[in-house]
Amino acid sequence: MLNDTQVPAPRVAIAEDSGVPTRQWFRFFSNLYDFIGLGTGAVPPTSGGTGQNTYVAGDLLYADAANSLARLPVGGNHCYLGTDATNMPQWVQVAYGAYYDTTSPSFTAGTPTIIPIGTVQFERNMTLAANRVTIDQTGTYTVTFSIQLTNASANDDRFIVWLRVDGADAADTASYVSVLKKHGSDNGSALVTVNLFCQFTAGQYFELYGLSKLGYAQVNTYAASSSPAYPQSPGVILTVAQVV
Question: Of 162, 161, 163, which Cα lies nearest the Cα of 149?
Answer without folding.
Answer: 161
